[in-house]
Recover the amino acids of this structure.
């Protein structure tokens, strides 16, 4: 076994210090995307080959439909939208892989009808590229789990926010409304939300109320 001399070690250190990676903006941008293969994972949601305006319209429509109101709710709603964008891309890849087979060796045969030719071509593409389809299915399953979890957290936050809003409702307002709050006034008369029930009475109210005058006795005295 040969060992590097001290001079070689020093030379390797100097050479390593001279390498700083890409220097130009174009080189740095290309280097930052070296790990992008399919766009189903990673930080970049919209690929350079995709339309940013289409993504923005798609994302806005989906996020708005989830009705987020707090920053965390909006973050989770955006995660749901971005994950759906990637799921749609994965399904496009699957369709593209099958369509590609029609122009390659998989579709180079004769069949009794176009329908049979299409079905057999798809089967040959899947057979010859089964590993690629399996990997694509694994990515889809992972994305579906991420989306489901984000959606679950979003619904929990929204339920907690709505429950807190109900708990903060003034107690006095609830009691007045349940007792039949006065809501309108018309022609000098005041109306309540609830109807008068002649069969219902409050014993305490009648006990403490002033007794009505004895009208027959008064009339008799006046007549006398």
């Amino acid at each position: 076994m040969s060992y590097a001399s001290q001079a070689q070690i020093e030379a390797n250190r100097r050479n390593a210090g001279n390498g700083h990676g890409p220097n130009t903006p174009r080189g740095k941008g290309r280097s930052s995307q070296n790990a992008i293969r399919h766009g189903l994972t990673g930080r970049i949601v919209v690929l350079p080959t995709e339309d940013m305006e289409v993504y923005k319209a798609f994302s806005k429509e989906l996020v708005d439909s989830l009705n987020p109101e707090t920053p965390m709710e909006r973050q989770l709603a955006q995660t749901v939208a971005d994950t759906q964008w990637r799921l749609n891309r994965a399904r496009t890849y699957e369709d593209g892989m099958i369509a590609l087979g029609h122009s390659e060796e998989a579709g180079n045969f004769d069949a009794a009808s176009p329908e049979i030719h299409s079905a057999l071509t798809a089967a040959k593409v899947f057979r010859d590229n089964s590993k690629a389809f399996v990997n694509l299915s694994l990515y889809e399953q992972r994305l579906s789990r991420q989306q489901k979890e984000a959606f679950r957290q979003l619904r929990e936050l929204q339920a907690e926010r709505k429950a807190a809003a109900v708990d903060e409702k003034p107690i006095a307002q609830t009691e007045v409304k349940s007792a039949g709050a006065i809501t309108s006034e018309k022609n000098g008369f005041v109306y309540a939300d609830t109807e008068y029930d002649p069969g219902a009475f409050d014993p305490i109210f009648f006990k403490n109320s002033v007794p009505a005058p004895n009208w027959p006795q008064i009339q008799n005295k006046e007549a006398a």
Observations:
- Confidence is low (pLDDT under 50) at residues 31-37.
- The longest helix spans residues 130-167.
- The chain has nine helices and two strands.
- The longest strand covers residues 182-186.
